[in-house]
Amino acid sequence: MGKLNGELTELETLIQQQQFDVVKDKINLLFDDEENKKSIELQLLMGHTYIGLGDDDAPYYFRRALDLDETCIEALFSLGNISKVLGDNFDALEYYQKVLTLAPDNLEATRSIGDIHCLTKNFNAGIDQYNKVIELGIKEKITLDDYVLFVRDAVLAYLNAGKYVEALGFMVKHKPKDFSEELELTEWKIYQEAIRTEFVSRPQVAQNLIRISRKLEAYVPENVSYKIQLAELLYENMDFDTALIEWKYGGKITEVEGIYKESLDMDISQEDKILILQKRVDLLRRFEKWEDSIVDLDELLALEKENSFFYQFRAEAKLNIKDAKGAIKDIANAIKLAKNERPSAFKLRGDIYVMAKAFDKAIEDYKKHLELAFDKAEAYFILGRCYHKKKDAKNAVKMFLKAESLGHLEAKSFLENKFLKQLKLTHERTSSKVAKLYEGQANRNASSPILSQTFGKLWTPNMDKVMQVLGEEIVQIPAKILTTMLDKVQEQLLLITNEGILFFEMGRPAEEYYYKVLAESTENVVLQLQSVKGTPTQNMRLKFYKDLLIVSFPIEEDGPDPKPKYFKVVEKANEQQVAKLNDRVLDYMDSIEEAIKLVTN
Fold first, then answer.
1. Is the separation of the CB atoms in 211 and 191 below 8 Å?
2. What is the C-alpha to C-alpha distance for residues 256 and 233, in angstroms, rounded to an integer?
3. Each residue's pLDDT tens digit, 370-394
4. Out of 80, 148, 284, 367, which could bridge 95 as a Cys pair, Cβ 3.0 to 4.6 Å?
5. Beta strand 493-496 pairing with 458-461
């Protein structure tokens, strides 16, 4: 037996050196002795050798070992591993459980049972096993690399079970202090789920994704994708107002720009170079660093000569540095190379022609833009400016009126300052036509139990309810934007009479409507509103909650209602509200004029 012990030591060394063919031949020679066939150790070594050779006969030798000793844990565990690799999960689970029957504290078998449960999508059972592994002190008993894989698998089990908070808790508690790229990427997955399920607020998610990206970029500096990822996150969460001021007045470049520069200085593929240059161009355009963006676009066009977007972006940059000739050439290439007609391209060429005072060509391009665009207010306004420059008052007024009806504030101001007479005539003519469509509705409106409670009063936003509706979104909105938004909300005003409605919406000019009841119940009333400007009708829902008027506007026939607006009554308008109600060029319908007098006098 002493001689065989020496042979076993040599064979184990050869297996470690992966000299499997040599081991196989030596064991076969040893098996010529019938006594050696009774050696459990030899059977186990032959099984491991056949695994190393990729031979399907490996299980035979582990079973031989079990025939010799049915309590052989190594044989049971090896058969479990082979079954797991072959996808025979039921058999694997049975072998591992037999190990635990013999050795209840066997760490590897406990962990492997957890793996099998997760493979069969029984994630909660897998989680239970992984927690038992923690109790067995896995961290002190395996290598750091293997422990990292264990933590990753446990976290993924929690995520797959939909236990996102628990996944984060497990990661925080059991993540090793040493950096692990694998675990940083796994933690990234947790926060990706946070975005989808909203179990962590978006600002917290952004903060943690940036933290993870900084680690990855610092510890794996050769991976340019981590730099790009970090730059993208910083860009998405940047306070642009502050950054723009710092750049304009302090010459401070953003951290994002610095990361892009570092990335481009690396030995990277052409594909990565194009991607980084594109992203830097987006950043430079946002900061209006037009000369710098032209440099990057020149390089991009050298790499991709047929990219219509690069030509369009360079045309935009050249327009902003007053290079009309270069801008025209680039936008012509962009339009020629584009696979589909882009409204933005025709608008940009129209802008270039306006700068060059080629108003006929600008009008042609803006008309083309209007055929393709969804947001038309600005286009109508520019067309009005072009016609005004050409001394074509009729078409100028027509375009300005269309822009103003779509809520363009500057168009409204332009009409009042330049074309007041035409504006009044048009308003009277259109309002008269609309009024005829709603003749007889005033009596029906007055008979509405809900509407009659609203007449002749000034309704203003209830800011407590506005804040409640915003809820958690408040922390996601930058302070400057939130302040501006809340200021605009407070400027909303609503007046209702049996004849019409006057509505000052957030950030828009006042709208005056005729209306009729479409549907009414004891709880709410749905109205069809027709602007005196003649624009398409819209629907509004009104209902009362205690002493608050809840307004949903505009509502779609089949879609969900927009977020409700909560209004309360003010007995008398304050100074700002009086100014807002009286600051107008055109008269409102008679009943609205009377209502204004009631709340402002």
1. no
2. 9
3. 999 888 899 999 999 999 999 999 9
4. 80
5. antiparallel
Beta bridge partners of 528: 516, 539
CA distances 591 to 109, 423, 512, 534, Å, are 84, 22, 11, 19
Q: What is the CA radius of gyration of the chain?
A: 37
**Is this model's pTM higher than 0.70 or not?**
no
Q: What's the token pair of residue 515?
A: 């209306």
Greatest CA span in the chain, whole angstroms? Answer: 118
| Amino acid identity for residue 45 in this structure | L
For the CA atoms of 413, 419, 422, 428, the dihedral, rounded to the nearest 10 degrees, stands at 20
Which range among 32-41, 134-143, 468-477, 584-593 shows the weakest confidence by mean pLDDT? Answer: 468-477
CA separation, residue 149 to residues 152, 170, 196, 203, 373 (Å): 5, 14, 25, 29, 52
> Which tokens sit at 591?
């009943």
173-209 b/e (C-beta count within 10 Å ≥ 16 → b): ebbeeeebeebbebbeebbebbeeeeebeeeebbebb
Tens digits of residue pLDDT in 342-352: 999 999 999 99
Q: Is the pLDDT of residue 2 over 60?
A: no
Asked whether the beta carbons of 139 and 148 are under 8 A apart, the reply is no
